[in-house]
Amino acid sequence: MPKYYEDKPQGGACAGLKEDLGACLLQSDCVVQEGKSPRQCLKEGYCNSLKYAFFECKRSLDNRARFRGRKGY
């Protein structure tokens, strides 16, 4: 579940999503029970919704898109 912050976390516009993604990975069964690294678990498909939301957040910050339009359209 995403956390909602009254005060924005320091570190940029997508810092809250990044923190939620890290917490999701660290609490996943892949890391806790199997002892794999969070990077391996992310590649295996854990926390996909937060991964996608973080990707879209980072993608939306492209300043060129304001002038050129969104990519892929």
Overall description:
This protein has helices spanning 15-27, 29-32, 38-44, 48-60, 65-68. The protein is an all-alpha fold and 73 residues long. Helix 1 runs antiparallel to helix 4.
How would you summarize the topology of this molecule?
Layout: H1 15-27, H2 29-32, H3 38-44, H4 48-60, H5 65-68
Helical stretch count?
Answer: 5
What is the helix/strand order?
HHHHH
Number of strands: 0
Largest sheet: none
**Content-based structural category:** mainly alpha
Through-space gap between termini: 31 Å
Q: Into which percent range does the helicity of residues fall?
A: 55-70%
Rounded mean pLDDT score? 80
Q: Which regions are unreliable across 5 or more consecutive residues at pLDDT < 50?
A: none
Strand content: under 5%
Give the overall shape, derived from the CA principal axes: elongated
Report Rg. Answer: 15 Å
Distinctive features:
single chain, 73 residues, 5 helices, 56% helix
Summarize the structure.
With 73 residues, the chain is mainly α. The chain has 5 helices and no strands.
